[in-house]
């Protein structure tokens, strides 16, 4: 497994993000799918990690959108056939290692209650339940978590 920082506008990154959007729409209504157009953000505000298998195929991705107050984890996705192999942990490890180099010491994320595996992973990695942050509002289909690094 090879995990590197990459551009979210790479064709394989765009394909992974489209798969993520389609998957989330099977779980939540559109108004509860908080997509972010990473390519529309300034390049220095986004850290995008891409995971490739031994053959070079893209199998997962995650992004960290940097703000003055925190870094928000976005667009976390691992293809179903690659889950359970530590890909998500490696993606997060790279982003968590890079965040302090950019002055970011607090990570935040929003996920949904219908993704218990994701919530368990985040908790296992030290993320703690919290309330809404940024522009988010309290919502029964949102789970908010944070981690200081």
From TrEMBL:
Molecular function terms, GO-annotated: acyltransferase activity, transferring groups other than amino-acyl groups
InterPro entries: Acyl_CoA_acyltransferase, Bact_Acetyltransf, GNAT_dom
Keywords: Acyltransferase, Transferase
CDD domains hit by this protein: NAT_SF
Pfam family, one: Acetyltransf_1
Domain N-acetyltransferase, chain residue ranges per copy: 1-149
Listed name of the protein: N-acetyltransferase
């Amino acid at each position: 497994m090879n995990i590197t920082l990459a551009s979210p506008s790479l064709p394989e990154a765009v394909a992974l993000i489209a798969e993520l959007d389609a998957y989330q729409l099977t779980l939540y209504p559109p108004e509860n799918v908080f997509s972010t157009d990473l390519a529309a953000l300034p390049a220095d505000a986004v850290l995008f990690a891409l995971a490739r298998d031994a053959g070079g195929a893209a199998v997962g991705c995650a992004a960290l959108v940097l703000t003055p107050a925190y870094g928000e984890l976005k667009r976390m996705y691992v293809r179903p056939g690659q889950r359970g192999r530590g890909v998500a942990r490696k993606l997060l490890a790279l982003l968590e290692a890079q965040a302090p180099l950019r002055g970011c010491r607090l990570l935040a994320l929003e996920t949904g209650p219908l993704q218990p595996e994701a919530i368990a992973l985040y908790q296992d990695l030290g993320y703690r339940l919290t309330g809404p942050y940024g522009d988010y509002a309290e919502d029964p289909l949102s789970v908010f978590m944070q981690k200081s690094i």
